[in-house]
Amino acid sequence: MKNIDYRRASVLLFDPVGVNLRNTRYALHEIGFREISCLSSVNEFKRRLEDTSPDLIIAELVNNENELLRAVRAVRSGELGRNPFVVFAFTSWVRDGQVMKQAIDSGVDDVIIRPFSTAFAEERIRTLVKARKPFVVTSDYIGPDRRKDIDRGIGAGNRVEAPNTLQVVTEGDESAIDEANRWIAEARRTVEAERIRRLCMRLSVGVEVGLRELSSGNVAVLDLEDLTRTAKELRLRLARQSAGEASRIAFALYQVCEELMGEGGFTMANLNLIKELAMGVLTAFAGGDSVETSVKEIEATVEALRRRLAPVRQLESGKSKEAELQRAAS
């Protein structure tokens, strides 16, 4: 097993409270880190994320939750910084379950609850070096895959071996260090392609569920704003890649989603058109086996979602009948 030398790694450390910032820096120094950039301004922290490429990021979550959660998502999606796969951990004085869930759902690697000992922090960081989790890519999440094997069914997202520059640097793997940029670029392309595929699937699944509910005489449960947001992200991602035909189809798809939200725009024809255009984007962008695999996943996901909706429909139907009886009795 290769030895870890933390002196080789760079750390970007953020905490708005001076005493906490100093304590965390002291702990990192005791562990062995020497290149530690300390920041207490969240705006300066985000600027550093954009301009530098640290091997480890540690940020205190409390009092800046919304900005930091957005920052992690932006990093993971490649919109902020140079390395979407950078090891990123939060520290937090708060143990609130909802806050912790939001943190984990942002794509951060770890949340270290304060107060913590130097030994505890070292153990958590060592785990991120030696046993970091693979990443998973879905339509609304990019980050460590924390699910158990039993939860990884159809439609659960593909796993990606995320480049771990913290491990490469601290273990002094010179050949891997030289290959780091190529390694990151290749992984970014893999993640971007899977993200685009998942966005197409999200649109197809959402619309198909609605169509089948309408065909069965039920009320269509459709989040039109989510459809439009998804179509917009898909359009922007393909435009950045200059994806030609796929980009042009995605633009048309976005326009139909916007029309769906307008007066008179919610029609079966538009719903079907969105489904066709989403598959058209996928065919133009990926083609071949990827489309065939996606169609199977879409069908399985649609049926699973409809099964979940069944108890809700039954409950609503029961309430409706009860209300009718009450009106009749009165």
TrEMBL record:
Residue ranges occupied by any Response regulatory domain in the UniProt entry: 10-129
Domain of life according to the entry: Bacteria
UniProt-recorded name of the protein: Response regulatory domain-containing protein
